[in-house]
Every structure is written in C-alpha cells, then in structure tokens.
Design a protein that fits this description.
This protein is of the alpha+beta class. The protein has a single domain, classed as Hypothetical Protein Aq_1857, Chain: A, CATH 2.60.300.12. 21% of the residues lie in helices and 45% in strands. It has three helices and nine strands. The strands form two sheets. It has a six-stranded mixed sheet with strand order 4-5-2-3-9-8. It has a three-stranded mixed sheet with strand order 1-6-7. The N and C termini lie far apart (29 Å).
Length: 115
C-alpha cells in the first residue's frame, strides 16, 4: 500500500501546485495551506482555507511536492478519508474537498453535514 493511500487526508497534485503558487505569489514560499472545519454554513459545517507560515504542534502536516498542507486534529476527525483538490470552472477557481463523511452539502460546496 502506498503512503498516499494510508494518509487520513490526501492532496491532489493540482491542489499542491496551487498551494505552492499561492504561497509564492504572497511572498511566503515556505507557508502552508490550513484546511479546517468550522461550525456554520447552511449545512452545519463549513470548510476554511488560510495560508499560514507554520503548523501548530499537533497538526497533521502533509508535504505535497513544494507545498505543505496543515490540518488540526479536531478538523481531521471530520476530514478523515477526504481529498483536497483544485477546480477551475467558468464561475471561478477554488479548492474543494471530496469528503466521504459528508452526507449532504449546500449548492456552493462550501458547507456540509455529517450523519
């Protein structure tokens, strides 16, 4: 089994490339993308993305090529088995999370509910 298959949270190559590009554009080439779950949104939980300089002591740190992604332990419970991706469409480009624990979501894809 590959290391990627055993990670509780995966990052696609497209998403990793965008994280690295955003960090470089912001003048923070060593920064990582924080992926978190907060209470709220129209479905109960919502994803939050933020560029951060360093990981917290208890974060899961995923090194994905030139990019790093940080997930806190509380969010990881709701993100276990998920995958971060980058999507480009006519309405804009954005990070998305494919979350097998989500039983429903809102139309914009930013919030979700679990069973």
């Amino acid at each position: 089994m590959s290391e990627a298959a055993t990670l509780p949270f995966r990052v696609t190559p497209r998403a990793a490339e965008q994280v690295a590009e955003i960090a470089a554009r912001e003048g923070k080439p060593g920064a990582g993308l924080r992926v978190a779950v907060d209470a709220g949104g129209c479905s109960g939980f919502q994803y939050r993305f933020a560029l951060e300089d360093t990981a917290a002591a208890d974060d899961l740190v995923i090194d994905a090529g030139a990019a790093r992604v940080f997930v806190d332990q509380v969010s990881l419970d709701l993100l276990a088995g998920s995958e971060l991706d980058w999507n480009e469409a006519l309405i804009g480009a954005h990070f998305s999370v494919k979350n097998p624990q989500a039983v429903s979501g809102c139309g914009c894809g930013a919030s979700f509910a679990v069973a």
